[in-house]
Design a protein that fits this description.
The protein has two domains: about 230 residues, 3-Layer(aba) Sandwich (Carbamate kinase), CATH 3.40.1160; about 150 residues, VC0802-like, CATH 3.30.2130. The protein is about 40% helix and about 20% strand. The protein is built from 15 helices and 17 strands. Helix 1 packs across helix 3 and helix 3 runs parallel beside helix 6. The structure holds aspartic acid and magnesium ion (MG).
């Protein structure tokens, strides 16, 4: 099989983990053609982001301290992981070169006072540059040929939307397949940095946080992979958060559309565009743990077989959100009201997570993250209060609970089961939404009721028996 394996940062954060990953890759390579995609090692991207923030605040010392911290972490890992002294020495020299470049970049950014999206993407790309060198060297160290390539080097070409770029798939496909085919012939395992590409002028771009998942599916689609495995520290997608529900179970199989819904919640956060490149080629994906390779994880396909019968597959929750009820008599029958509200929020870069409007049109209710609440209320008050809006009512600390599963579509009685069971458990519901796709029934409750609601629905839909049916 042709396999793309993507490792998240936590899977490659200690010498022992890296050695295990290298051994697993070596054993898989006997039967399969492999492409490895890596994230930056845990905390590295966060540190790089903090460097950018420190430069913005003109705190050069802090930025340099963080760069040292990144350097130490990687030097230490290299020393502990790589056994052959010559190989280790060469890796440490390479790291020295990267660190000097990083320090020079910080100097330059401080000097120019320039923290633009473009310079930030270049800065953030250091995390993956370091991690792929380490992983490919660890594979070499156990006697297998491997080279590291950044997203730019392998040929991922994107638009110039720094911080949130999109691949130009036709050019990317040509370049990536050419680069990788020649490595397959040489039996050399490519270790590619996720998250990063370059625009047509060669400027480094990133796909946004968590973008390595997206890199893996882009590359998988370019080389027509048979499967893509996202290796992280969770066993796969679950019926609920196991911290809340003791008998939560691993889902053996889900569809792309269900996985897209689940990716928003849950322990394994997946970059929202990850599934895009898979849809036309219908490449199956597995979500697996690098710490438990005996477990097959969750298979994500275009048309899952077994589980299709289950009406609901999982109940997930996101806590700490704010609910804003926007009211006003003049909103009734006035075209453009919703447009004004949402463009006002969009101009302030506020992401709206849920929306509902009653047919009387006298109120629109939205949910945003608690962290965005203050900004959202402020901008609505200054821009629209007294004009189209008469009153804002705000509730903090609310949880969104979502029931997900394509089997809900056209099934009579799901809603009655949901709200019946919540009533039995004395949970009050503040807002409800269901799109006509019927994939996701979501509602809002108080944070303090969230665990009760999740547990109640997990029981009601017998999700602990999901793979036994
Ligand atoms: N290193 C990047 C991040 O932390 C990309 C990724 O991990 O997928 O967001
Ligand atoms: Mg990550």
């Amino acid at each position: 099989m042709k396999l793309v394996l993507k490792y998240g940062g936590t899977s490659i954060s200690s010498a022992k983990d890296i050695q295990n990953v290298a051994k697993h890759i070596q054993s898989l390579s006997k039967q399969n053609q492999l492409v490895i995609v890596c994230s930056a090692i845990s905390d590295t991207t966060d540190d790089l982001i903090e460097i950018a923030q420190s430069i913005k605040k003109e705190n050069k010392k802090k930025a340099e301290q963080l760069a040292k911290k990144i350097a130490n972490r990687h030097q230490q890992l290299a020393s502990q992981t790589i056994k052959k002294s010559q190989v280790r020495k060469k890796l440490l020299q390479t790291f020295d070169g990267y660190v000097s470049e990083l320090i020079a970049l910080i100097d330059g950014m401080v000097l120019l006072g320039e923290v633009t999206p473009r310079s930030m993407d270049y800065l953030f790309s250091f995390g993956e540059r370091l991690s792929i060198k380490l992983i490919s060297t660890a594979i070499n160290d156990i006697g297998k040929k491997s080279i590291s390539l950044t997203g730019k080097e392998v040929g991922i070409v994107t638009d110039s939307n720094f911080g949130e770029s999109k691949p130009l798939m036709d050019t990317t496909r040509l370049r990536v397949s050419k680069a990788l085919e020649s490595l397959f012939l040489k039996k050399t395992i490519p270790v590619i940095g996720g998250f990063v590409g370059a625009d047509q002028h060669g400027h480094v771009t990133t796909f946004g946080r968590g973008g390595s998942d997206y890199s893996a599916t882009i590359i998988g689609s370019c080389v027509k992979a048979d499967e893509i495995w996202l290796m992280s520290d969770v066993d796969g997608l679950m019926t609920a958060d196991p911290k809340i529900v003791k008998n939560a179970r691993l889902l053996n199989e889900v569809s792309y559309v269900e996985a897209i819904e689940m990716a928003m919640f849950g322990a394994k956060q997946i970059h929202p565009r990850t599934f895009e490149p898979l849809l036309t080629k219908k490449i199956p994906m597995k979500i697996r743990s690098s710490f438990n390779v005996k477990n097959e994880g969750t298979l994500v396909t275009s048309s899952p077989s077994l589980t299709a019968k289950n009406s609901v597959k999982c109940v997930s929750n996101v806590s700490h959100n704010g609910l804003i009820d926007i009211r006003g008599g003049s909103m009734v029958g006035t075209p453009g009201t919703a447009g004004k509200i949402f463009s006002t929020l969009a101009d302030a870069s506020i992401n709206v997570m849920m929306i509902s409007q009653n047919p009387s049109e006298s109120s629109i209710t939205i949910v945003v993250k608690n962290a965005d609440l203050d900004k959202a209320v402020n901008i609505l008050e200054t821009e629209l209060l007294g004009k189209i809006i008469k009153k804002l009512e705000i509730t903090t600390d609310m949880a969104i609970i979502a029931l997900i599963g394509s089997g809900m579509r056209g099934t009579v009685g799901v809603a009655s089961k949901v709200f019946g069971s919540l009533a039995k458990n004395k949970v009050n519901v503040s807002m409800i939404t269901q799109g006509s796709s019927e994939l996701n029934l979501a509602f809002v409750v108080k944070n303090s009721d969230a665990n009760t609601a999740v547990q109640a629905l997990h029981n009601e839909f017998e999700l602990s028996k999901i793979n036994l049916k």
